[in-house]
Design a protein that fits this description.
This protein is mainly beta and 173 residues long. The strands form four sheets. It has a four-stranded antiparallel β-sheet with strand order 1-6-9-8, with no helix packed on it. It starts with a helix and ends with a helix. The chain has helices at 5-11, 94-97, 168-171, and strands spanning 16-19, 31-34, 38-42, 55-59, 65-67, 73-83, 86-92, 101-102, 115-124, 128-130, 135-143. The protein is built from three helices and eleven strands.
Length: 173
């Protein structure tokens, strides 16, 4: 079952942390998250799953940044989230999708217990200008049956910013 916006509000500050939280961003069954002003782009043309692929940081200026098709941009939310007892899910807002911007490749599914900023995998179907602070995604919450094991020690847990792929760590196991 998906939590209603009113139910999300009832759990804010307890099982659901969204920081900063603005009640005006609450929807009937989700909450709008915004785009931070920093992005990462990979510097190698060919990426390797077994490697920590190098990246460089770029900032979104006040006049916006033009995204180019065929390029992956890693971004993050302004908001820090933490969830206990619910499964957080992330989707792009329909207004963003109607501009041809995808906000995640396959990573919209969160784990119960996740704490951190959401890394967004941005790509577009045609050139489009983006701006920092735009409400870019919606987070919503599913209930989970008990017992469950919370995500507490994963490689993306308690992050402090944008994260590149850490799949290479799986090869070291």
């Amino acid at each position: 079952m998906i939590l209603s916006g009113l139910e999300i509000k009832n759990h804010i500050g307890r099982e659901i942390i969204i920081d900063p939280f603005d009640e005006k961003r609450l929807n009937p069954n989700s909450y709008n998250l915004s785009l931070h002003n920093e992005l990462l782009v990979y510097t190698n043309e060919i990426l390797d799953m077994k490697s920590d692929n190098p990246s460089e940081k770029i900032s979104i200026p006040s006049e916006g940044l033009m995204l180019k098709p065929g390029k992956l941009y890693l971004a993050r939310t302004v908001e820090y989230t933490k969830t206990e007892g619910y499964i957080p899910m992330l989707e792009g807002r329909s207004s963003i999708g109607r501009l041809g911007i995808c906000i995640h490749v396959t990573a919209g599914f969160g784990d119960v217990g996740f704490a951190g900023y959401w890394t967004l995998e941005l790509f577009c179907v045609q050139p489009v200008r983006i701006y920092a602070g735009v409400q870019i995604a919606q987070i919503y919450y599913h209930t989970i049956t008990k017992p469950y094991e919370a995500y507490t020690k994963g490689k993306y847990q308690n992050n402090t910013g944008i994260q590149t792929s850490m799949l290479y760590k799986d090869f070291a196991i």
